[in-house]
């Protein structure tokens, strides 16, 4: 019988979704399915050329040049090639077509092709690596101060006890220098090192530092790489000499690379929620996966941060992890002075200049006049979170998700940040036809516009998801700011993570309230971490930095803790709250989310599933409830939350949960429902 591809079946049947039909036919044993894996990786080749062996020797070269007197372009190419190898008259070496054309100046590919056709040049395609920029080895390591040496000794003590180590160092304390020393020790032993980062943006600065120290031993791996580049990294690790030593710097997916001789895993900014993969499946937390990887590999693991997650700090306090603290900044610099600006006062006195308080305007002016730099933080991209009719309060919503559309001024469109749906900006209200439509709230685009209006001579750049979609956009933005071609950097949470700038003297959080008011039990923890981290970008050298937090609730306890750099006070308060309500670290949480395109079908099904789960787990089951965004991509969703005791058998919980869900679906004959399970959501 003739084999058909799925695409062929779609064409014959005239149906886009043929998988249900194929499955039904397979169940009836009418057809058999076969899968074939094909190698799609292609090696990168470069067209290389060299002068034919017929022209080795002075006489042959003179004859060649004389024969090309009437073809000056071709003659230029030959002379250009010879100039690349002065003194050589034979055993010619390969050069790339591109470099030869550049060397010859005015020559054209047509002239070069003619020389190849004549046999003057011999062509050859040479396989080259896509992984570039690895030739910067200077073997230059920073000198550690006494605090760093002490931390290094304590870390090694923890490793000797076979414990994970939590390095809790305030922003600017020099944790990276400690990492470099630990990596050097592993490379000397011929071991491999995995250095995990939560954001691709961080790699721009770290890559430079690692390559100065370790050169070609550094490999980079993240999602901005093409598939072919990632295959090359995979092969480089898989085929490497197990005792040669190697450092892999990467984002969360790096934990799945084929390490052979792993000696150390470093998880930098271990508190970051971006280490958790949500979509697509599998859902996993890179920090926790790194723990498992280190255990399997019998490798040491170090978690580094200036604001530990509550769970990690709890484990360290309980003795499960070795806790190492660094409480002083490197080089004698001190933590920046944090001021809280009451927006109610400036608004009442009419001192606000758009989004900027009078204090912030003055501080920006002073900072720029001193030739220092500024970071402005707002954890929301776009221009405005929504447009609202002033007459009837109509707000444009996404047609596929229950969320308002965000206005992006640069493309003059309304966009959904969940599914990507876009809409042209309406000229009038859909409900009452009023033309009085106004922007509500603000994002990084609006900050950039108002900053330009207030300070027209100041150069500013923006770092958010919209400006960093291309492969090297992170590098360009960071490089411009690092080399002071940009005076003000406006950004989302990307600017808060581990970046080290010498000349930043002022940091401002333009609105702290949205983070504090988010409906989640981790809202205060995230707010403390994010604001503390972005504040830590200021004053990292000699000058005392300044941080301004604009808020409508200056009396908020979390803001006071941040202002006083009181992590332990925050931790104790947060821990007591979580213990009262049995949240992590006193329990494990599992989200069970049921989805369907019709709300009327979802509601009774979710209630029934919750009842089935309660029959096995009792009052450990909460819900079902709609999450803050109740519909995404035309699917309504309801969520149940399971709180599982830490001492419970995880294998038994897993088995029981799976059995209950399978029995529920089998008993109710449910179709077109989707079920998502997320263990330890963040």
Instruction: Kindly provide the name of the CATH class of the largest domain.
Output: Alpha Beta
**Strand segment tally:** 28
Instruction: State the strand order across the main sheet.
Output: 6-7-5-8-11-4-12
**CATH arch. level architecture of the largest domain:** 3-Layer(aba) Sandwich
List key phrases describing it.
alpha/beta; 682 residues; seven-stranded parallel β-sheet; Rossmann fold; 21% strand; 28 strands; six-stranded parallel β-sheet
Task: Describe what this molecule looks like in 3D.
The protein has 682 residues and is of the alpha/beta class. It folds into five domains: 1-36, no CATH class; 44-128, no CATH class; 146-332, P-loop containing nucleotide triphosphate hydrolases (Rossmann fold, 3-Layer(aba) Sandwich); 337-383 and 442-467 and 475-567, Rossmann fold; 587-679, Alpha-Beta Plaits (2-Layer Sandwich), CATH 3.30.70. It has 22 helices and 28 strands. The strands form seven sheets. It has a seven-stranded parallel β-sheet with strand order 6-7-5-8-11-4-12, sandwiched between helices. Strand 17 and strand 18 form a beta hairpin. The protein is globular and about 95 Å long. The two termini are 51 Å apart. The mean pLDDT is 89.
């Amino acid at each position: 019988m003739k084999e058909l591809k799925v695409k062929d079946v779609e064409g014959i049947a005239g149906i886009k979704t043929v998988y249900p039909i194929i499955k039904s036919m397979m169940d009836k044993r009418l057809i058999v399915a076969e899968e074939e894996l094909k190698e799609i990786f292609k090696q990168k080749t470069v067209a290389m050329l060299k002068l034919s062996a017929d022209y080795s020797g002075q006489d042959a070269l003179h004859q060649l040049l004389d024969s090309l007197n009437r073809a000056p372009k071709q003659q230029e190419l030959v002379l250009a090639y010879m100039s690349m190898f002065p003194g050589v008259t034979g055993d010619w070496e390969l050069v790339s077509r591109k470099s030869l054309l550049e060397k010859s100046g005015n020559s054209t590919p047509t002239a070069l092709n003619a020389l190849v056709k004549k046999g003057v040049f011999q062509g050859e395609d040479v396989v080259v690596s896509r992984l570039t920029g690895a030739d910067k080895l200077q073997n230059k390591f920073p000198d550690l101060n006494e605090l760093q040496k002490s931390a290094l000794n304590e870390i090694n003590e923890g490793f000797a006890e076979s414990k994970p180590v939590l390095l809790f160092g305030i922003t600017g304390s020099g944790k990276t220098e400690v990492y470099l020393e630990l990596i050097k020790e592993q490379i000397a032993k011929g071991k491999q090192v995995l250095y995990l980062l939560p954001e691709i943006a961080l790699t721009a600065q770290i890559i430079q530092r690692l390559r100065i120290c370790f050169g070609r031993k550094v490999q980079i791996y993240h999602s901005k790489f093409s598939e072919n580049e990632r295959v090359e990294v995979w092969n480089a690790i898989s085929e490497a000499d197990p005792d040669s030593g190697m450092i892999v710097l990467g984002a969360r997916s790096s934990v799945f690379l084929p390490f052979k001789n792993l000696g150390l895993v470093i998880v930098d900014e271990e508190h970051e929620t971006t280490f958790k993969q949500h979509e697509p499946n599998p859902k996993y937390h890179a920090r926790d996966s790194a723990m498992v990887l280190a255990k399997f590999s019998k490798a040491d693991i170090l978690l580094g941060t200036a604001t530990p997650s509550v769970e990690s700090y709890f484990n360290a306090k309980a003795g499960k992890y070795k806790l190492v603290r660094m409480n002083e900044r490197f080089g004698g610099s001190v933590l920046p002075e944090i001021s809280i600006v009451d927006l109610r006062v400036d608004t009442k006195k009419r001192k606000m200049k758009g989004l900027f308080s009078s204090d912030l305007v003055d501080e920006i002016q002073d900072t720029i006049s001193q030739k220092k730099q500024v970071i402005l933080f707002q954890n929301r991209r776009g221009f405005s979170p929504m447009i609202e009719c002033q007459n009837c309060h109509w707000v444009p919503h996404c047609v596929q998700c229950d969320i308002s559309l965000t206005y992006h001024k640069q493309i003059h469109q309304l966009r959904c940040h969940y599914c990507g749906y876009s809409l042209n900006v309406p000229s009038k209200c859909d409900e009452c036809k009023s033309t009085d439509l106004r922007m509500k709230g603000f994002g990084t685009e609006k900050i950039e516009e108002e900053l330009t209006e207030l300070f027209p001579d100041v150069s500013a750049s923006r770092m958010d998801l919209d400006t960093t979609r291309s492969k090297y956009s992170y590098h360009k933005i960071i490089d411009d700011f690092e080399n002071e071609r940009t005076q003000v950097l406006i950004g989302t949470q990307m600017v808060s993570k581990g970046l080290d700038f010498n000349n930043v003297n002022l940091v401002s959080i333009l609105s702290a309230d949205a983070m504090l008011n988010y409906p989640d039990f981790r809202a205060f923890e995230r707010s403390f971490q994010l604001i503390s981290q972005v504040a830590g970008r200021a004053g990292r050298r000699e000058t005392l930095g300044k941080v301004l937090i604009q808020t409508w609730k200056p009396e908020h306890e979390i803001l006071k803790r941040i202002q006083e750099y009181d992590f332990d006070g925050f931790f104790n308060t947060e821990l007591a709250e979580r213990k009262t309500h049995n949240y992590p670290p006193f329990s494990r949480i599992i989200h069970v989310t049921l989805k369907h395109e019709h709300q009327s079908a979802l509601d009774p099904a979710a209630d029934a599933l919750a009842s089935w789960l309660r029959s096995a787990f009792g009052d450990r089951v909460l819900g079902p409830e709609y999450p803050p965004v109740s519909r995404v991509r035309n699917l309504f969703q309801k969520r149940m939350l399971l709180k599982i005791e830490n001492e419970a058998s995880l294998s038994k919980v897993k088995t029981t949960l799976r059995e209950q869900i399978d029995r529920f679906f089998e008993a109710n004959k449910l179709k077109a429902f989707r079920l998502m399970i997320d263990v330890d959501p963040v």
